[in-house]
From TrEMBL:
<keyword id="KW-0411">Iron-sulfur</keyword>
<dbReference type="InterPro" id="IPR017200">
    <property type="entry name" value="PqqE-like"/>
</dbReference>
<dbReference type="InterPro" id="IPR058240">
    <property type="entry name" value="rSAM_sf"/>
</dbReference>
<feature type="binding site">
    <location>
        <position position="29"/>
    </location>
    <ligand>
        <name>[4Fe-4S] cluster</name>
    </ligand>
</feature>
<dbReference type="GO" id="GO:0016491">
    <property type="term" value="F:oxidoreductase activity"/>
</dbReference>
<comment type="pathway">
    <text>Cofactor biosynthesis; pyrroloquinoline quinone biosynthesis.</text>
</comment>
<keyword id="KW-0949">S-adenosyl-L-methionine</keyword>
<keyword id="KW-0479">Metal-binding</keyword>
<keyword id="KW-0004">4Fe-4S</keyword>
<protein>
    <recommendedName>
        <fullName>PqqA peptide cyclase</fullName>
        <ecNumber>1.21.98.4</ecNumber>
    </recommendedName>
</protein>
<keyword id="KW-0408">Iron</keyword>
<dbReference type="InterPro" id="IPR013785">
    <property type="entry name" value="Aldolase_TIM"/>
</dbReference>
<comment type="subunit">
    <text>Interacts with PqqD. The interaction is necessary for activity of PqqE.</text>
</comment>
<dbReference type="InterPro" id="IPR011843">
    <property type="entry name" value="PQQ_synth_PqqE_bac"/>
</dbReference>
<dbReference type="GO" id="GO:0018189">
    <property type="term" value="P:pyrroloquinoline quinone biosynthetic process"/>
</dbReference>
<dbReference type="InterPro" id="IPR050377">
    <property type="entry name" value="Radical_SAM_PqqE_MftC-like"/>
</dbReference>
<feature type="binding site">
    <location>
        <position position="33"/>
    </location>
    <ligand>
        <name>[4Fe-4S] cluster</name>
    </ligand>
</feature>
Length: 375
């Protein structure tokens, strides 16, 4: 019991701890992926946290109960102090993983990361086909990625292979899985692109049709049946086509905390785009204050903020009202029900987006590649 009555039942909320810490070490990246979730204005966000500032964030987060730490970016390998930060995280007892394109990696650096205590590596690979990969990321890196995946396996890391699923590669599903199996990866994640930032700019050009998604799902199921437990494959039909929103972040400010390169603390990697919320910086506040007391983390925590129909919905403990960033981008108010939900009064916006993306002249516009100043 609390003084206000019975305590709320525990959800997937880590009992109030930021179990999962996401460290965006830099927005710098040698690639130009047109679905990048970094801010459109990433080029003007400078003044990255120093090594010592990052180490303080790691210490304070671990003291607060964080367990899993993802180093991401941009491309985290751009940071020369990555090994030092991995070593500090390992010393503190984090389970660390690196989310990377592998550009900036070689066998020697991989060995140093291993020695520093890195536990797992997630590599993005856009296709089994070199031309497709190189075109989609705007650089000739396909063969390097393949070489590095082999090296990562050779050095004994578990590997998650991540394919951002878009119209341009969705027909490659089976060939991609064949390659993944041959490379010996442990997990394959078919990550249906979420439409924020660069992906939203390119939504009409990137979005597959429901038919293409169903075909891909069927190919994955057939592959799973053929290979058994040799490789784990993740795929879910994206929220645009599902009729129900995703349980974004397992609930706002529930278990995940992201620290951006300039020190802003965010409940999700996209939240910087939300206007009207004053996100605190680790340069000005302790991690504990940010997590427990800052208005930015409390605003959409729990369900008091919800409007109808979310507030009285019997699924709100399952999806937490969906995604605040998507609600903001598509309706102008982050507290609105996520339009991805068929019960949302804004659901028609999803239908309109699908129609718009699949009009007969699809593929008629070139992709806007991620680059500084392009927004
Ligand atoms: Fe920000 Fe869903 S991406 S809440």
């Amino acid at each position: 019991m609390t003084k206000d009555g019975p305590a709320r039942p525990l959800r997937l909320d880590g009992q109030g701890k930021p179990l999962w810490l996401v460290c965006e070490l830099t927005y710098k990246c040698p690639l130009k992926c047109p679905w990048c979730n970094n801010p459109l204005e990433f080029g003007s966000i400078r003044d990255e946290l120093s090594t010592e500032e990052w180490k303080r964030v790691l210490r304070e987060s671990r003291a607060l109960g964080s367990l899993q730490l993802g180093f991401t970016g941009g491309e985290p390998l751009v940071r020369k102090d990555l090994e030092e930060l991995v070593a500090e995280a390992d010393r503190l007892g984090f389970y660390t993983n690196l989310i990377t394109s592998t550009v900036g990696m070689d066998a020697e650096r991989l060995g140093r990361l291993k020695a520093a205590g890195l536990k797992q590596i997630q590599v993005s690979l856009q296709s089994h086909d070199a031309d497709t990969t190189n075109t989609l990321v705007g650089a000739p890196v396909h063969q390097h990625k393949i070489d590095m995946i082999r090296e990562i396996k050779a050095q004994g890391f578990p590997v998650v292979l991540n394919i951002p699923v878009v119209r341009q590669n969705i027909a490659h599903t089976t060939a991609y899985l064949e390659l993944a199996l041959e490379l010996g990866v442990d997990y394959v994640e078919f990550a249906n692109v979420q439409y924020y930032n660069w992906a939203l700019v390119n939504r009409d050009e990137l979005m597959p049709t429901l038919e293409e998604l169903r075909e891909s799902e069927a190919a994955i199921n057939a592959f799973r049946a053929r290979i058994g437990k040799r490789m784990t494959i993740y795929f879910v039909i994206p929220d645009y086509f599902n009729g129900r929103p995703k349980a974004c972040m397992n609930g706002w400010g529930s278990i995940i905390m992201t620290i951006a390169p300039d020190g802003l603390a965010l409940p999700c990697q996209e939240a910087r785009l939300l206007e009207g919320l004053d996100f605190p910086s680790v340069r000005d506040h302790s991690v504990e204050w940010i997590w427990k007391d800052s208005p930015a983390f409390k605003t959409y925590r729990g369900d008091d903020w919800m409007k109808e129909p979310c507030r009285s919905c019997d699924e709100k403990e399952k999806d937490f009202g969906g995604c605040r960033c998507q609600a903001y981008l598509l309706t102008g108010d982050a507290a609105n029900p996520d339009p991805a939900c068929s019960k949302s009064p804004f659901h028609h916006k999803i239908g309109q987006a699908i129609v718009e993306a699949h009009r007969p002249l699809r593929n008629s516009r070139p992709l806007v590649m991620r680059q500084a100043g392009a927004s």
